[in-house]
């Protein structure tokens, strides 16, 4: 009684999702992209030139001058790019990004002939390999490397701090057959791009091997980069590609989702490719543009929304191996105290709006340098104090989806304890006997407010989670009475006739992209519409928020889709995602506001998850918010809270079967969605005991490793996992003809 999935199942959906280019991409928002969480390459036409640009960027390459803050002195630094320069004038191209292999393949046509191209960034080493096979007329094509100016990308759009200058120019060095662009840093250290082109197959096919290394304060990057290229060049392209392709194919097989909207299904699988191209557990937490750095006002890691949204989809899609957030917060936890004002460092933690990969902010007292944590009731710096607690909600999700007690004990509990403790320094009773907060900042509304909903909602979730965690861990914490007092006496969330306010005395009164004032609804699920009044409040707040046009952005619509999914409004959720796709998502599924950012498309994948399965509050909800037009849908090994793997199928508008496998032996409560009498069977087809706990909801006792199949009574459905038929055809992503 186990689902059957053939390798062709993944091959079918991935091949169908491959983006194609039959027109030349002109920008980062249009072209193919390759990456492994560290090394990244975006590919598009070299502006005003007869050439194709292959960017070379790396998530570890940054400056090290903290006196100029995270946005200048600690910013990620641009590295440079190669140009593929043909003999003839480019007249056409036919490219395909093969998601299954994470490899770009295709042909570039010119007036002199053609160039057949294959390229990948290796899945486990910092190697960019580009193989070009020219026709006879194009045998004289060449590669040229263009070092970038080593200056914060923010310098293009924002005032430069006094005393801040660019790093010295890179120098091009020849080391035998290997060329290196050596970029010295004023703060010490260097980053180095090294490359060599190797001819094979009668010297007709030529392969470019390139890598990047970064070191600070030592100057060891040159030696590492040269060694990497010398090692790589001895191995043909196809031999390098074998383990690379194998790893990517194993990656995709950890889960499966097929839905009848062809455009959205392709989009979803592209986001799974994108997140694995941008993230690794041991890589830096994703900056706003991932490893694909471009000119941007946001050249570092952003903690007041971007990080959280970037990583949500790893849980349901069963890819916790990409969780850099839990790792980074744990590894660099001491920095979380340093970022606070001196009186609070002994017992509290906080994270600024922006940091480098080691969670360093730098010039936190100046808004244009770093946006520090701030102090409630004081300004400057802006008192934006809830970001760490929100980031720890991501850690909590990783715990809940794995039930790994080490995450709870070693990371979440100690860090959340200190994050909540920072709030407790400022809570004070009012004349109403309730506990109140002085003015803080709700990202990114622009006005400080006392009893700010962003902070009240996070504080309430934090105290509840600490108490639950202490009980699970068997801890008798001396601070527990304080957490209970907060839950008992914290002032209610400020509300007016339009729903949730920014804070006390500050209504939500202008167009605003962020849902920071509604976190208790999503993603915290502290307010879920349990009563008619609570549901009405959510509906009113949501409608008021999205009703202001002017400042709405892409992630407005992913948040609105997920909130609609919470309410079971699948058609509304699909409508919001439709607006996102038509108004904001770019041809290659990237996204832009004032510069390139990647969190919104990734969070749209999570919105799809929220339509397919929700598992907050200890209950797994199967297909809770599917739109009416999605009559067929299949999901396999979808990871839920409680560490269950869910497989389920919907056929002709009805849920046909649901199967849950327990990885941790946690309590299993499921709203299965099957109408009428049901049967529950184990892996051998034998009846399994269960308890009816509500309308369409059952509790199944499952030990670790056990599974349960739920079907309609007397039904024996086919458990084969296969793609569903799309309702109608749709164009591929990329730039098809």
Which SSEs are present, and which pair or pack?
Blueprint: H1 7-17, E1 20-21, E2 33-35, E3 39-45, E4 52-58, H2 69-73, E5 80-85, E6 90-98, E7 103-110, E8 113-121, E9 128-134, E10 142-147, E11 171-175, E12 178-184, E13 190-200, E14 205-215, H3 221-232, H4 237-252, E15 256-258, H5 262-278, E16 301-302, H6 306-311, H7 313-316, H8 324-331, H9 333-338, E17 354-355, H10 387-402, H11 405-424, E18 428-429, E19 435-436, E20 440-441, E21 448-449, H12 453-473, H13 480-489, E22 495-496, E23 499-500, H14 532-546, H15 554-566, H16 570-583, E24 591-592, E25 596-597, H17 599-612, E26 613-614, E27 620-622, E28 633-640, E29 644-651, E30 654-662, E31 668-671, E32 678-681, E33 691-694, E34 697-700, E35 707-712, E36 734-735
Parallel strand pairs: 1-36, 27-31
Antiparallel strand pairs: 1-6, 2-3, 3-4, 4-5, 5-10, 6-7, 7-8, 8-9, 9-14, 11-12, 12-13, 13-14, 15-28, 16-17, 18-19, 20-21, 22-23, 24-25, 26-27, 28-29, 29-30, 30-35, 31-34, 32-35, 33-34
Helix pairs in contact: 1-5, 5-17, 10-11, 11-12, 12-13, 15-16, 15-17
Which descriptors apply to this entry?
36 strands; 737 residues; 17 helices; ten-stranded mixed beta sheet; globular
Write up this protein.
- It is a single chain.
- This protein is of the alpha+beta class.
- The protein contains 17 helices and 36 strands.
- α15 (554-566) packs parallel to α17.
- The longest helix is centred in the middle third of the chain and has 21 residues, at 453-473.
């Amino acid at each position: 009684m186990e689902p059957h999935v053939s390798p062709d199942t993944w091959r079918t959906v991935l091949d169908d999702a491959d983006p194609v280019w039959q027109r030349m991409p002109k920008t980062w928002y249009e072209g193919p992209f390759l990456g492994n969480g560290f090394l990244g390459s975006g590919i598009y036409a070299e502006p005003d030139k007869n050439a194709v640009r292959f960017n070379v960027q790396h998530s570890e390459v940054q400056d090290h001058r903290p006196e100029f803050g995270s946005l200048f002195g600690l910013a990620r630094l641009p590295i440079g790019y190669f140009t593929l320069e043909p003999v003839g004038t480019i007249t056409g191209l036919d490219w395909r990004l093969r998601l299954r292999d994470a490899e770009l393949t295709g042909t570039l046509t010119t007036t002199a002939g053609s160039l057949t191209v294959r390229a990948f960034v290796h899945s486990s080493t910092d190697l960019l390999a580009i193989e070009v096979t020219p026709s006879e007329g194009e045998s004289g094509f060449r590669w040229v490397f263009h070092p970038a100016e080593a200056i914060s990308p923010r310098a293009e759009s924002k005032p430069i701090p006094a005393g801040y200058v660019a790093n010295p120019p890179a120098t091009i060095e020849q080391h035998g057959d290997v060329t290196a662009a050596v970029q010295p840093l004023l703060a010490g250290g260097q980053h180095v791009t090294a490359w060599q082109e190797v001819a094979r197959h009668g010297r007709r096919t030529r392969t470019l091997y390139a890598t990047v290394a970064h070191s600070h304060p030592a100057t060891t990057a040159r030696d590492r980069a040269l060694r990497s290229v010398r090692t790589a060049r001895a191995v043909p392209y196809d031999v390098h590609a074998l383990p690379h392709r194998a790893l990517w194919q194993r990656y995709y097989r950890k889960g499966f989702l097929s839905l009848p909207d062809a455009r959205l299904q392709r989009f979803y699988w592209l986001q799974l490719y994108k997140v694995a191209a941008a993230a690794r557990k041991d890589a830096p937490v994703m900056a706003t543009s991932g490893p694909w750095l471009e000119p941007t006002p946001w050249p570092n890691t952003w903690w007041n929304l971007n990080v959280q949204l970037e990583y949500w989809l790893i849980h349901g899609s069963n890819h916790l191996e990409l969780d850099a957030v839990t790792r980074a917060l744990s590894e660099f936890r001491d920095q979380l105290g340093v970022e606070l004002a001196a009186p609070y460092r002994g017992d509290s933690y906080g994270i600024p709006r922006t940091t480098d990969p080691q969670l360093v902010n730098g010039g936190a007292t100046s808004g244009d340098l770093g946006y520090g944590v701030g102090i409630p009731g004081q300004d400057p710096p802006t008192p934006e104090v809830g970001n760490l607690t929100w980031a720890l909600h991501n850690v909590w999700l990783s715990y809940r989806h794995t039930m790994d007690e080490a995450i709870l004990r070693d990371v979440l509990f100690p860090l959340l304890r200190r994050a909540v403790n920072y709030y407790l320094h400022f809570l004070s009773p009012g004349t109403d006997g309730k506990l109140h907060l002085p003015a803080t900042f709700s990202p990114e509304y622009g006005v400080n407010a006392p009893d700010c909903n962003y902070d009240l909602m996070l504080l309430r979730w934090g105290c509840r989670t600490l108490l639950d965690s202490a009980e699970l861990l068997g801890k008798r914490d001396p601070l527990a009475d304080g957490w209970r007092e907060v839950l008992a006496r914290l002032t209610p969330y400020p509300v007016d006739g339009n729903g949730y306010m920014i804070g006390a005395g500050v209504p939500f009164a202008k167009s605003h992209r962020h849902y920071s004032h509604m976190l208790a609804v999503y993603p915290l699920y502290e307010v879920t519409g349990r009563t008619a009044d609570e549901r009405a409040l959510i509906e009113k707040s949501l409608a008021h928020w999205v009703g202001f046009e002017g400042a709405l952005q892409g992630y407005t619509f992913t948040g609105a889709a997920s909130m609609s999914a919470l309410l079971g409004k699948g058609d509304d959720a699909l409508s919001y995602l439709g607006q996102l796709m038509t108004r904001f998502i770019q041809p290659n599924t990237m996204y832009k506001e004032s510069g390139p950012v990647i969190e919104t498309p990734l969070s749209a994948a999570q919105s799809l998850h929220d339509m397919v399965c929700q598992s907050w509050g200890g209950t797994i909800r199967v297909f809770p918010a599917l739109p009416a037009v999605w009559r067929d849908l299949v999901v396999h090994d979808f990871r839920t809270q409680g560490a269950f793997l869910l497989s389920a199928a919907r056929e002709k508008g009805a849920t046909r079967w649901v199967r849950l496998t327990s990885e941790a032996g946690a309590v299993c409560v499921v709203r299965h969605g099957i109408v009428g009498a049901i049967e529950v069977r184990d892996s051998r087809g034998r009846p399994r005991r269960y308890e009816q706990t509500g309308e369409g909801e059952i509790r199944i006792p499952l030990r670790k490793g056990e599974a349960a199949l739920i079907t309609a009574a007397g039904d024996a459905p086919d458990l084969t996992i296969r793609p569903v038929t799309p309702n109608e055809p749709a164009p591929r992503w990329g730039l098809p003809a």
